[in-house]
Amino acid sequence: MKSSLVLLSLVIGTIEACQTDNDCSLNGLCNSQQVCDCDPSWSGDECEILNFEPVAFPQGSLIL
Questions:
Q1: Can you give the residue range of the structural domain that contains 45?
Q2: Which of 3, 24, 25, 62 could pair with 36 in a Cys bridge, judged by C-beta atoms 3.0 to 4.6 Å apart?
């Protein structure tokens, strides 16, 4: 059990808090809790994931 707690603390310790807006990939702002507040189109711990809208297929015109 003790080794599991040590491993968990090592994993948690590797998560870095943001210090500046640059740490949020310039896709959000670093707030006072040192967490990125991502712009609406972005997500992830560092605002590094672009959120796409769902797509219905087929798109465009079908040429026969």
A1: 2-50
A2: 24
Residue with tokens 């990939």: 25
Number of domains comprising the chain: 1
Task: With 0.70 as the threshold, say if the pTM is over it.
Answer: no
Q: What SS3 string covers 5-62? A: HHHHHHHHHCCCCCCCHHHHCCCEEECCCCCEEECCCEECCCCCEECCCCCCCCCCCC
63 within a domain of the structure (yes/no): no
Report, as ranges of residue numbers, the positions in the chain whose pLDDT lies below 70.
Answer: 1-15, 61-64
